[in-house]
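Consider the tokenized backbone below.
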């Protein structure tokens, strides 16, 4: 009646893609409970679950103890679709494009250094040799007449890529440094990406830094990622939405979904379902 993943976020990512490929995906997600024991490099979901469970300790033993308690809470999942292949993905953690994706994927050559490899690459790519990433970002704000939990239970039918978006979607087109979509509080055990995120609030939090932001301000944000203090830095914009579309207007960029490289190009997503995860709080 449960699936327990021992590894990093990547092993759970593969599990959810396998479930998506099945005809009984909805039944599986409604019946099974999920847990994760952090044995990988970054372990963002495991850290987020412990944080939501009011547990300041981060160890494999603490995660196992949360699972043994048997308490569960719902975690938002998101559905992603690629324009080039119409391939669909299930996501639980985050999506990044631009600087953050480069730091995660290009730093694989330094994997032997552990999690610090992304810090080194952030200085290299973001401060010493910065790039401009131009994109068109269009999003659907949460309904004003519903709570966020209501939004999570409402399935959003995304338009096809060759169709115009509805009028209630908002468009931003600019040169960006950071484009980071968060489902959880932590992207890694040592990166407090989105302090305001909840397990089942039914929304994406999109962190945006435009290329017009100075290197000094960008460096200040990067230095405060561990504590979550970057949220209050000048130059960071936070967009809340229930669905979005990103259309890169720059070549040679990466789409980084839950820490995994997927095909590049236009991508769109919506909060589509929830799965039950072992967490320390009892859901009433």
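A designed sequence for it:
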């Amino acid at each position: 009646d449960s699936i327990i993943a021992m590894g990093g976020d990547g092993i759970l990512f593969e599990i959810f893609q396998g479930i998506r490929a099945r005809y009984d995906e909805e039944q599986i997600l409604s019946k099974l409970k999920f847990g994760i024991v952090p044995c990988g490099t970054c372990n963002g979901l495991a850290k987020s679950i412990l944080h939501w469970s009011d547990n300041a300790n981060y160890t494999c033993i603490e995660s196992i103890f949360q699972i043994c308690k048997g308490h569960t809470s719902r975690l938002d999942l998101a559905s992603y679709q690629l324009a080039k292949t119409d391939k669909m993905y299930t996501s639980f953690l985050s999506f990044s494009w631009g600087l953050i994706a480069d730091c995660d994927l290009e730093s694989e050559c330094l994997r032997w250094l552990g999690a610090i490899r992304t810090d080194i690459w952030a200085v290299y790519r973001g401060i010493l040799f910065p790039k401009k990433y131009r994109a068109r970002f269009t999003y659907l704000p949460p309904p004003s007449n519903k709570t966020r939990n209501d939004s999570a239970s409402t399935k959003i039918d995304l338009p096809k890529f060759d169709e115009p978006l509805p009028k209630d979607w908002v468009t931003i087109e600019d040169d960006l440094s950071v484009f980071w979509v968060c489902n959880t509080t932590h992207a890694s055990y040592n990166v407090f990406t989105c302090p305001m995120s909840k397990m089942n609030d039914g929304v994406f939090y999109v962190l945006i830094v435009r290329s017009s932001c100075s290197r000094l301000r960008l460096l200040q944000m990067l230095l405060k990622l561990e504590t979550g203090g970057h949220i209050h830095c000048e130059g960071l914009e936070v967009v809340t939405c229930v669905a979005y579309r990103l259309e890169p207007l720059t070549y040679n960029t990466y789409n980084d979904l839950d820490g995994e490289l997927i095909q590049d190009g236009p991508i769109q997503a919506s909060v589509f379902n929830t799965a039950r995860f072992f967490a320390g709080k009892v859901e009433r």
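Residues 116 and 204 are 26 Å apart (CA to CA).
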